[in-house]
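Give me the 3D structure for HTH-type transcriptional regulator TtuA.
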Amino acid sequence: MLPNPTLDQLQVFLTVAESGSFSAASRMLNRAQSVISYTIANLEAQLEMPLFERSGSRQPKLTDAGRVMLEDARRILSDLQVMRARVKGLKSGLEAEVAVAISVMVPVHATVDVLREFRDRFPYVALRLDTGELGSMLELVASGKSTIGIGGSVLKQDDSLVIERIGHSFMLPVAAPTHPLAQLGRPLTLTDVREEVQLVVTDASSLTNGKDFNVLSYKIWHVSDIATKHQLIRGGLGWGGLPASFIMEDLQKGRLVPLALDAYDQSEYPIYAVRKVDNPPGPAAAWMIEAFSSRLSRCPNQADFKAAVEMFHPDEKRLAAE
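Predicted structure for HTH-type transcriptional regulator TtuA (322 residues):
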């Protein structure tokens, strides 16, 4: 017959092992010492092996088998504590899972900071994270696959969605320092960029299907995501716009240079928190929206960003300021 120890037996076993004696365990658990001894004896009978050496010492000493079983007992009781905490959270209205869709336009440092604090505040709430380009965030929320969305590109009003502005971002045209456009050393015109390869993200979302943003060149390379676009631009294979916060380190270290191109729209655009009207956020999701709002409202604006670029590239101050 397979052993079937109870959770109470495992708790008593763990308490005896950690307290160092049967008498100490009886005080900690507020039970008679005889009850503690009886419980351990029943557990050993269940397992058909001794857990403590009782001869030659007044204090119980774990056997080799006892040391192995102790690790299993700790793991099982730890899992029980997780289950209890999750049940308590669910009873109080806390979600079992938060599904969030985050646009690549959202500054990475803000996302990392929010998710780190989310993990610490809600250790028993599962998280499902989707990232995407342009309209995919809206589609994930509208379809119900994501509880909330954080991003931009709200291209049309939808009465089924609650849309709240919580911050801003902007795109910056850049190229590798070895790229011909970066080598011109002056403000660029449309003529300068027309014959140079421009890298453009093609969004899989139906909301932006067929739409191009800030496309100025005649030669277009379409890529599926921002990360690929970023690497190709850094590799000198073309120029294009990237989220300003996404490339700050590259600009500081000279891996990319900003292009002074008036024809490229660099105006700030809003970042929104999006959710369905009929699916209001629970405590954890509501906290996440507020946390993103707090961090994104403090993001640098264009003037701050250009000042930072000038600090690391004083020789390009004129280009960055234009």
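The chain has 13 helices and twelve strands. Let me know if you want a second pass.
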